[in-house]
C-alpha cells in the first residue's frame, strides 16, 4: 500500500481529470495522512482544478491558430 | 519605463487565447470572437509603426480588441430600428402586477460580481498559461480546457501517457505558483 511521493503526485494529477482508479485514490489518501508535502500539493492541485472550472476557460483549437498564423504571415 | 517591442510572429502563440477569452466574454459567440481576434492581429500589424513602446504588447493588443468589440456592436446595431430599445412586459400577457419591480436589477443578486470576477480569473489563468513552455501549455489546454482524453492527446502528439502526465504535472505546478502570486 505504500507509495512514493512521485507516485502520489501522479495519482493526484490523474484524479484531477477523474482518471485515477479506486485503489489508486485509496493509496493516495493513505499517503496524504503521512505526508504533509503531498497533502499540501493535493489541496493546491484541487484548488487549481476548481479555479479552472469556475473561470470557464476558452481556447482556440490548434488548427484555428495555425490558420491565423498563416494569414498573419501573408501580411508581414 | 523600458521600451517594449512588437514581435508579431509570436502573437498567435502568446496572445490568441488571452484575447479570445476576452472577446468571448463580450460577444458570447465563439465564431465572432475568433474573427475579432484575427482582425485585432491584422490591425496590430497595420498600425505597428504607431506603436510607441510605452505599453506592453498585450495591453496594446487588448486596446485594439476593445475597439473591435465596440465596432462589432455598432455594426449589428446600425440597421434602422435595431438601435431603439423596446421593453415588453412579458411574453405571457396574463401575468400582471409589479411591472417596475420585475424590471430592475435584483440588488441582492451576486451574479454580476461573479461574472466579472470569473472573467478576471480566466484572464489571470490564461496569462499564466501563456508563460508555460509551448509543449506544456499545449498539453494542458488539450487536457483541461478542451477536455480531451489521455489516449487522444497521446495519439495526436505522438507521446506516451507517462510523458503526458509528467508534462501535466509540470504545467500544473507552474500554474499553481503563478496563480499564487497573481490571484490570491
From TrEMBL, chain A:
Protein name: Glycine dehydrogenase
Automatic annotation (TrEMBL), chain B:
GO molecular function, a single term: sigma factor activity
Every RNA polymerase sigma factor 70 region 4 type domain range: 124-175
Family matches, as Pfam families: Sigma70_r2, Sigma70_r4_2
SUPFAM superfamilies assigned to the protein according to its UniProt record, in alphabetical order: Sigma2 domain of RNA polymerase sigma factors (SSF88946), Sigma3 and sigma4 domains of RNA polymerase sigma factors (SSF88659)
Domain RNA polymerase sigma-70 region stretches: 12-75
ATP-binding recorded as keyword: no
CDD domains found in the cross-reference section: Sigma70_r4
GO biological process, one term: DNA-templated transcription initiation
InterPro entries in alphabetical order: RNA_pol_sigma-70-like, RNA_pol_sigma-70_dom, RNA_pol_sigma70_r2, RNA_pol_sigma70_r4_t2, RNA_pol_sigma_r2, RNA_pol_sigma_r3/r4-like, WH-like_DNA-bd_sf
Keywords associated with the record: DNA-binding, Sigma factor, Transcription, Transcription regulation
PANTHER family: RNA POLYMERASE ECF-TYPE SIGMA FACTO, RNA POLYMERASE SIGMA FACTOR HI_1459-RELATED
Similarity field: Belongs to the sigma-70 factor family. ECF subfamily.
Annotated protein name in UniProt: RNA polymerase sigma-70 factor, ECF subfamily
Gene source species: Flagellimonas pacifica
Lineage: Bacteria, Pseudomonadati, Bacteroidota, Flavobacteriia, Flavobacteriales
Amino acid at each position: 500500500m505504500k507509495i512514493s511521493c512521485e507516485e502520489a503526485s501522479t495519482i493526484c494529477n490523474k484524479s484531477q481529470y477523474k482518471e485515477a482508479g479506486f485503489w489508486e485514490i485509496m493509496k493516495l489518501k493513505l499517503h496524504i495522512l503521512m505526508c504533509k508535502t503531498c497533502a499540501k500539493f493535493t489541496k493546491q492541485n484541487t484548488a487549481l482544478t476548481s479555479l479552472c472550472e469556475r473561470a470557464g476557460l476558452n481556447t482556440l483549437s490548434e488548427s484555428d491558430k495555425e490558420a491565423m498564423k498563416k494569414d498573419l504571415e501573408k501580411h508581414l | 519605463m523600458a521600451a517594449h517591442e512588437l514581435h508579431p510572429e509570436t502573437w498567435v502563440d502568446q496572445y490568441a487565447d488571452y484575447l479570445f477569452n476576452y472577446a468571448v466574454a463580450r460577444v458570447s459567440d465563439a465564431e465572432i470572437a475568433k474573427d475579432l481576434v484575427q482582425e485585432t492581429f491584422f490591425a496590430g500589424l497595420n498600425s505597428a509603426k504607431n506603436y510607441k513602446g510605452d505599453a506592453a504588447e498585450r495591453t496594446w493588443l487588448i486596446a485594439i480588441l476593445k475597439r473591435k468589440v465596440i465596432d462589432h456592436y455598432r455594426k449589428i446595431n446600425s440597421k434602422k430600428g435595431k438601435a431603439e430599445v423596446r421593453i415588453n412586459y412579458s411574453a405571457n400577457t396574463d401575468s400582471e402586477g409589479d411591472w417596475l419591480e420585475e424590471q430592475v436589477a435584483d440588488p441582492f443578486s451576486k451574479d454580476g460580481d461573479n461574472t466579472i470576477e470569473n472573467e478576471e480569473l480566466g484572464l489571470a489563468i490564461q496569462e499564466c498559461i501563456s508563460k508555460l513552455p509551448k509543449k506544456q501549455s499545449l498539453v494542458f489546454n488539450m487536457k483541461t480546457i478542451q477536455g480531451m482524453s489521455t489516449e487522444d492527446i497521446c495519439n495526436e502528439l505522438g507521446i506516451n501517457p507517462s510523458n503526458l502526465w509528467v508534462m501535466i504535472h509540470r504545467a500544473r505546478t507552474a500554474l499553481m505558483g503563478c496563480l499564487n502570486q497573481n490571484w490570491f
